[in-house]
Design a protein that fits this description.
Blueprint: H1 2-21, E1 35-39, H2 42-46, E2 54-59, H3 80-97, E3 98-108, E4 112-113, E5 116-117, H4 120-131, E6 135-143, E7 160-167, E8 187-189, E9 192-194, H5 202-210, H6 216-234, E10 240-245, H7 261-269, E11 271-276, E12 286-288, H8 307-316, E13 322-325, H9 332-339, E14 343-348, H10 351-360
Parallel strand pairs: 1-14, 2-3, 2-13, 6-12, 13-14
Antiparallel strand pairs: 3-7, 4-5, 6-7, 8-9, 10-11
Length: 363
């Protein structure tokens, strides 16, 4: 029964490749939550897609000389230069099929050669920005919390990898509110608005009035600004704030006006505000996520965790968008896209992995 189902899926897949991609049309019936898997060389399959088709790509290509995968392909090159060149050629084609508002999220690990760390993640990233016109927006550090065993006695154990966020243009789809941490809201105490962390403005008001570093006009402007911020907090436009007053608080950024707008504002006005979003805190660029358990996928040794895909999809793929993974392996990216209601296309050179991914996504 299982063999028949797998065979049927492969026939459907082949039909899609022959009848749909060759004509560069979208597959009929490609519904809001449908996932398509295609077997073959990533660059050859990508060439069959029309320009600006995908909203978001999340992928983790095989790392150089780390493992022998199910079939020959990327990662088994003799030199790291060949490996990087092969990857970049795929991301050139991906640049074409990515929408002008699209994003590429690339998880890639490093390798050692003759006891030297090669620096592959940054070599690839700089090749994409310098030669393929990608814009690098973030270098996220994936802190694995626990790393793989390392018996080496002359270096530290590695417990992190990079997740690079690239875009094609300076304006792109990005929904930061979709991943904000829940914020505590301001409240009213004794008729006075108090922030989520207990800031009422009384201390700032006293510091302004007693300041010897502010002129009288600067004091009036600072008090007016403070009242305006308290009104915003009362109305729910912000959940919290901090006020930096000249000669009172330590500046939160550089003191050099040439490189810091905050420093310039402090010099010219005598104060500035740090306002906190009512929907919560914006996450940082270090993500603590446990590595993927094999989850009975014993034939694939490098599946990344589902948690690594949630934020990128929520951030950079609209609800009606399409997600791509040109090295989909056992379908982690596709499974998360399916959970979040996005359409997706997964490509892998190994039919065995494609079958595993289909089973995992219950197609």
């Amino acid at each position: 029964m299982k063999q028949n189902r797998a065979a049927g899926l492969q026939v459907s897949q082949t039909k899609f490749q022959e009848e749909v991609l060759e004509e560069k049309k979208i597959a009929p019936g490609f519904s809001d939550t449908q996932t398509l898997f295609l077997t073959g060389d990533a660059i050859k399959i990508l060439k069959k897609f029309p320009n600006e088709y995908f909203d978001c790509c999340i992928t983790s290509p095989p790392y150089w000389r780390h493992r022998e995968y199910n079939v020959l392909g990327i990662g088994l090159e003799n030199t790291y230069q060949e490996y990087i060149a092969n990857l970049v050629s795929i991301f050139v084609e991906l640049h074409r099929v990515l929408k002008s508002t699209g994003s590429l999220w690339l998880n890639i690990g490093d390798s050692y050669l003759d006891k030297q760390l090669v620096g592959i993640p940054w070599r690839v990233a700089l090749s994409l920005t310098d030669n393929v016109r990608y814009i690098l927006r973030n270098s996220v550090v994936w802190h694995k919390l626990k790393g793989s065993p390392d018996n080496s006695k002359d270096k530290l154990r590695s417990v992190y990898e990079h997740l690079f966020h690239f875009v094609k243009n300076k304006k792109y789809y990005y929904n930061i509110d979709a991943i904000r941490a829940n914020a505590r809201s301001a409240k009213i105490e004794n008729g006075r608005v108090v922030s989520a962390t207990g800031v009422s403005g009384i201390r700032y008001k006293r510091q302004i009035e007693l300041s010897t570093a502010l002129s009288e006009s600067e004091k009036r402007e600072a008090l007016s600004g403070l009242e305006s911020v308290l009104e915003d907090m009362k109305a729910g436009h912000i959940s919290d704030f901090r006020m930096v007053i000249r000669a009172q608080q330590r500046t939160t950024h550089s003191n050099m006006e040439k490189v810091s707008g905050r420093a310039k504002e402090l010099k010219e006005k005598g104060f500035y505000f740090l306002k906190y979003h009512p929907n919560g805190t914006k996450p940082g660029d270090v993500w603590e996520i446990l590595p993927e358990d094999s989850q009975k996928r014993d034939d694939h040794y490098a599946a990344y965790p589902e948690e690594l895909c949630y934020w990128p999809i929520l951030l950079s793929c609209p609800p009606d968008g399409v997600v791509l993974d040109p090295f989909c392996g056992t379908g982690t990216t596709m499974k998360v896209a399916q959970i979040l209601g996005r359409r997706s296309v997964g490509i892998d050179i190994s039919q065995k992995y494609i079958d595993m991914a289909m089973e995992r996504c219950r197609l």
